[in-house]
Amino acid sequence: MGAYILRRLLLIIPTLLGIMIVNFALVQFVPGGPIEQIIAQIEGEGDVFAGIAGGGGETQAAAEDGVGRRGLPPEFIAELEKEFGFDKPPLERFLNMLWNYMRLDFGESYFRSISVIDLVLEKMPVSISLGLWSTLIAYIISIPLGIRKAVRDGSSFDTWTSGAIIVAYAIPGFLFAILLLVLFAGGSYWQIFPLRGLTSDNWDELSLLDKVADYFWHITLPVVASTISAFATLTLLTKNSFLDEIKKQYVMTARAKGLKESRVLYGHVFRNAMLIVIAGFPAVFIGVFFSGSLIIETIFSLDGLGRLGFEAAVARDYPVIFGTLFIFGLIGLVVGILSDLMYVLVDPRIDFEKREG
């Protein structure tokens, strides 16, 4: 197992390098880089940095001086290109970026006076809260429900729960989030949960117990909105996994020996059926952590990684774009290795080295 893990760790390097090469190459063909964004802002063609706190101080001052109205001198544009490093060829910029990343230097945002690492750490708690709680709740509900559906396959319980699951899966996350706001956040009916944010304005004045209660009060609706699609997928995945195992010969043999049904299900079937469910854990967590976070964060006014990535893409903030891409790509690859380790933990009979041989 040690040799397998070592090979997987070594594969991270070329995989991550490929990800960075492809995305860096694509960015070179995208119109409207950071220089063009600054020029557009100075010339009054649009404030692409609206909503990014603390950004564009120098360019705003230049606009107030009327530089844009008189036309931008070439020397000014050349100075901007030198400041951002665009006076160098793309290959040299890419190699410098990789060298800095190897030293864990991810640079500083073009439009915020903060390093990329500090910016990610600042936004991380919101996304971790959404991803962690959504994934845990999905697994806590889906696994028992999926097992129950498998045991009672074809019953009225299985039928109506399948209908409810299909409806839940068909509802778009953003639409369900808006529905929750309308119903429970003072939209048109009940004012039970707060409308926005992760904490109350008087957070610093609250006691420890009140802070915990306030946190869960704010996170309830975003987590529910994030969980609905993952909950449906996991439930059906668990049910199908159990059905496949229940029909196998070893289950019939265990029942013929007089073992209790609970012992058969949780002592024999559970270990084998859970392999595919556990294998899906990284995808579920990463999916909730990254993919669904932008819409949920926007609707509930949460300042997390989803909005950070969107704002960086709009503003062409390349240090933030590539820094977060590198960090999250590395996290995703490491989580994949952890998934294999969870396989072995659940079923020690699995040997990845023999499978590769």
Automatic annotation (TrEMBL):
It is found in: Cell inner membrane; Cell membrane. It is a multi-pass membrane protein. One of its GO terms (biological process) is microcin transport. Keywords: Cell inner membrane, Cell membrane, Membrane, Transmembrane, Transmembrane helix, Transport. PROSITE patterns: ABC_TM1. It comes from the Bacteria. InterPro entries: MetI-like, MetI-like_sf. Its main location: membrane. Residues 124-343 form the ABC transmembrane type-1 domain. GO terms for cellular component: plasma membrane. The chain crosses the membrane at residues 9-30, 128-147, 159-185, 215-238, 273-300, 320-346. Belongs to the binding-protein-dependent transport system permease family. This is Microcin C ABC transporter permease YejB. It comes from Thetidibacter halocola.
